[in-house]
Design goal:
8 strands; 8 helices; three-stranded mixed beta sheet; alpha/beta; 2 domains; five-stranded mixed beta sheet; Zincin-like; binds zinc ion; 39% helix
Amino acid sequence: MGSIVSDLDLKALSDLEKSILRLVKRPIHLTITDNIHSMIHISPSNRGYRVRLHHMFLEADTEVLRSLARFINGRNRKAPPLLRDFVASNHNKIRKTPAKARRTILRHNGHHFNLKEIFDQVNQEYFANKIDCHITWGARRLVRRQNSIKLASYSDRTKIIRINPVLDRSYVPKYVVSGIIYHEMLHHHLGVESRNGRKMAHTKRFRQFEKLFRHYRRLHVWKEKNLHRLLGR
Ligand SMILES: [Zn+2]
């Protein structure tokens, strides 16, 4: 599982956070998403706001950000026209499959598991089928003895979940693969948060969601016991 393989532009994210903070003049908890249904979502939190924005806002100019700040502070009930125009003119950025993902050949079929099948099951059970990212087995590495291993990763640039092929073994229970896929889907679902210019993937909120997985405990117990086998030791 490890950490998110994130290609989000950290500087753009931190700049956006700073700009909004300066304009809103209240504490802001910013999350950048790839949500296809909601471009802006604001909820009160402590003395400030929890703000979830589509990544199109990483490229918004000052005018748009000013308008956004007024909207956040609640002076406008409805999104102001400038903001609506901005979203409309960036419509092409919503749910577009990135070029890299289009070029990548996705391998779903393993010897023991079909990743797409498990992805679809998890998507239905936990996400009401709303997750639209991709999944593939990662490349097989020849390195034998390792001290640590990344079992999966998610890239928010290509929207691809990669599962390490060491998991494609008969002794690996299906709930382990499901749980690892669920974790990566959460990265897609929750987006990347910025706190004081630092990118956060495994936030408190993330950990709360993570525990909703049906076999959460079992998965961790299994990993504790079997990691050495996966590492080839
Ligand atoms: Zn993670």
